[in-house]
Amino acid sequence: MSKATGFLDTQKTEPMPDVARCMVIAKKEYGKSLFSQISEMAMLAFGPRKIQPAEYYYFRLYDDDRFSFADKRAFVGRNAQNKIFFQCNALDWLAVAHDKLMFAAALEGLSLPTPEIYAIYHGFRTFGTAPALRGRDALTDFLRTGMHYPFFSKPVTGMYSVGAAAVREYDAARDSLVLANGKAIPVQQCADEIAPFDKDGYLFQELLMPHPVIEEVCGDRISTARIIVALTDRGPEILHALWKIPAGDNVADNFWRPGNMLAAVAIESGRVHRVVQGTGPDQVEVQVHPDSSKPVQGLILPDWKRLTDLCLTGASAFPKLRLQAWDVAMCASGPVLLEMNIGGDFNLPQVANGCGLMDERFRGFLAACNGG
Q1: Cα 129 to the center of its chain, rounded Å
Q2: Does pTM surpass 0.90?
Q3: Are 327 and 105 in contact (CB under 8 A)?
């Protein structure tokens, strides 16, 4: 779970399955002997995909009815993931995706839709005509008198939505910011929590409104599609499409946040064909959203052709980043590009699809990257 101090989550801690507990469950409920579990874990851990024991249970690889050993070998562990990232992507291009101000500037220059930036907080950086706030006093004054509400805010070099906030309004009577979930936090406390991000910067941008199709299911908050794109010798191609589904009072739709869900989406049609919540033995397949009771299974995501075309167009602008994972907000005004991640977490497509990433197509792509 995330560590919350009031206004911001300050860290991401993704809970991994308890190996001892999972070993018992796999034996009792799936008939998988302890010897068989340990043998498979050893072979997978020392194999090329580097699946660690906790990942073995995270992906439910003890289920022999679902996975052959060849299927299990197709899963990629986190220890192998970074090697693949660097195999596909040029080091000197990484900052354009990791630094959100640089990335926003690139998208604006490409005339691609991206959220408007209202202000930045940093000791000396600027971003076009957006106000640049220097120090806590300037930040608190701007939050009280200059900010455009509502807004969404996040660290310039943040990951996993850590340090993000969705703010609805300023309540002058209480001198507080009212968050999207209705909680009121004193302005000075908000500034104190933002201040540690001053080294790399913190940005404030427009709070996007969801497409009516998304709002009916997820409520009045943004939900994103994760589009994984490979830059092949033939041009950009979509490898996987996912839908990150927020639930409860989570500030963002990241799957690691408790209660959120993850869906596998058909690339051509945008139809949702599998939705899961949780991981390991606690994972369940979901048919309806727990908050709205609206169907998620079988839903066709809005503006799908336009959304995927935007990702392919954007991907072409970064030719030295050959494995990209785009997050796209499905908004009332149409799809909006939020971020491009270097490869993205491989656990997401593997959990959503319920199968390993290392299929024939992906192996061929990696071989081409090695050759290039």
Answers
A1: 29
A2: yes
A3: no
What's phi and psi for 136, nearest 5 deg?
-65, -40
Name residue, tokens 């299911």: 217
Question: What's the CA gap between 103 and 58, in Å, rounded?
Answer: 32
For residue 15, the Cα-to-chain-centroid distance in whole angstroms is: 16
- Report whether CATH 3.30.470.20 matches the domain 91-112+210-371: yes
Q: Counting beta carbons within 10 angstroms of the beta carbon of residue 69, is it exposed (0 to 12), middle (13 to 18) or buried (19 or more)? A: exposed
CB 266 within 8 A of CB 274: no
Q: What would the pLDDT profile of 129-176 be if each residue is shown by its tens digit?
A: 999 999 999 999 999 999 999 999 999 998 888 889 999 999 999 999
Q: In the chain, where do the E strands start and end?
A: 117-121, 132-133, 151-155, 165-171, 176-179, 184-186, 202-206, 224-232, 235-245, 261-265, 272-277, 284-285, 323-331, 334-342
From CA 356, how far away is CA 73, in angstroms rounded?
8
H and E: helices and strands count for the chain? 13, 14
Among 70, 63, 54, 69, which residue's Cα sits nearest to residue 21?
54
Q: Would you kindly state where each structural domain of the chain is located, as residue ranges?
A: 19-75, 91-112+210-371, 117-206
Interhelix angle 136-145/187-194, rounded to 10 degrees, is 130
Which DSSP category does 288 fall into? B
